[in-house]
Amino acid sequence: MPLKLSDKLPAIDILKQENIFVMGEARAQGQDIRPLRIVILNLMPLKITTETDLIRLLSNTPLQIEIVFMRLKSHTPKHTPIEHMMMFYKDFAELSQQKFDGMIVTGAPVETMDYEAVGYWNEIVQIFDWARTHVTSTLYLCWAAMAGLYHFYGIPKHALARKMFGVYAQKALMPLLPIFRGFDDTFFMPQSRHTELWRSDLLQHPELQMIAESSVSGVGMVMARDGREFFITGHLEYSPTTLDAEYKRDLGVRNDVDMPQNYYTHDDCNAAPIVRWRAHAHLFYSNWINYYVYQATPYNVNDIK
C-alpha cells in the first residue's frame, strides 16, 4: 500500500530495497482520496531505526496512509541529528489543533524512573489526554503502555530483578477480537524491559481487557475503550537484529541482562537470530489499521471526538 512520507526521509531508501511501496508527497497529491493520518510520537533514542521499523509494518494494507512524526518540546534527543528532527518532526503545539485517525506512542529508555521524575512527564500526559479526543485509536508500546495505564487508570509498574529480554510465546485471551483475525493459537512477541504489569492490578479495572498474556513474560496486551486504546508491553515492531544490538550494547555494562531467550540459533550469540514474530507483527498492524482505524474513523477527520 502507498505510504505518504516526506521525500527525503532516510527510511524510504531502506524500505524500497525491501520492495515496500513508499509514495512521495508529490505523487500522493495527485491521488483523489483521503489518506488515513497516523501520528507517531517517537520516544526511542535511535529514532531513524524506529521510524523504519514502524513504517515497515504500516505498509501492509491497500490504504494510503499519511505519517506525521511528533517530537517533545521538553526533551532534546541525544542520538538523532538535530537536522533530522527539524526536517521531519513537529512539536506537539504545532499538531495539537489537528486530528488523526491513528496514533502510535513508542517506548522510552526511562522505565526504571518514577513516572513523575521523567523530565517530560507533564508534556507526555498532556499528549495522552489530547489523544483521547483527537485520535480514533492509539497504540501505546512498552514504556508508553505502562505510562498510559498508570496515567489513565492508576496501574503501577513493578521492577524486575533481571531484564525481561527475548522472544516469548503469547496466548490471545480474546481470539475472536478483530485485532487477532488470522492469528494462530499462540504468537511470539519480543520483550525488552526492566519492569512489568501485574494481572492482579489489571483485574481491578473492569474497563480494561487483558487480551494477550504469556506464561513467562506476563501481561502482553491490554485493550480499553473498545479498541480506541491498545497497551502493548512488547515490541512487535522490532527488526530481526534489534535484540542482538541491545544485548551486545549492554554486555559488560549492565549486570542484570542475560542473553535474550528464544532468539539466537542454538542459543549462540554469534549465530543468526530466529525471527518468530514477523508474520504476526504485520498481521497485528494490518488488523489495527483496518478494524480500529479505517472502519472506525469518520470520513471527515475533523469529526473525531
From TrEMBL:
Keywords: Acyltransferase, Amino-acid biosynthesis, Cytoplasm, Methionine biosynthesis, Transferase. The record marks 192 as: Important for substrate specificity. GO terms for molecular function: homoserine O-acetyltransferase activity; homoserine O-succinyltransferase activity. Pathway: Amino-acid biosynthesis; L-methionine biosynthesis via de novo pathway; O-acetyl-L-homoserine from L-homoserine: step 1/1. The record marks 111 as: Important for acyl-CoA specificity. Substrate binds at residues 163, 192, 249. It catalyses: L-homoserine + acetyl-CoA = O-acetyl-L-homoserine + CoA. Pfam families: HTS (PF04204). One of its GO terms (biological process) is L-methionine biosynthetic process from homoserine via O-succinyl-L-homoserine and cystathionine. It is an enzyme of class 2 (transferase). Its EC number is 2.3.1.31. It is found in: Cytoplasm. InterPro entries: Class_I_gatase-like, HST_MetA, MetA_family. One of its GO terms (cellular component) is cytoplasm. The active site is at 142 (acyl-thioester intermediate), 235 (proton acceptor), 237. Transfers an acetyl group from acetyl-CoA to L-homoserine, forming acetyl-L-homoserine. Belongs to the MetA family. PANTHER family: HOMOSERINE O-SUCCINYLTRANSFERASE. This is Homoserine O-acetyltransferase. The gene is metAA.
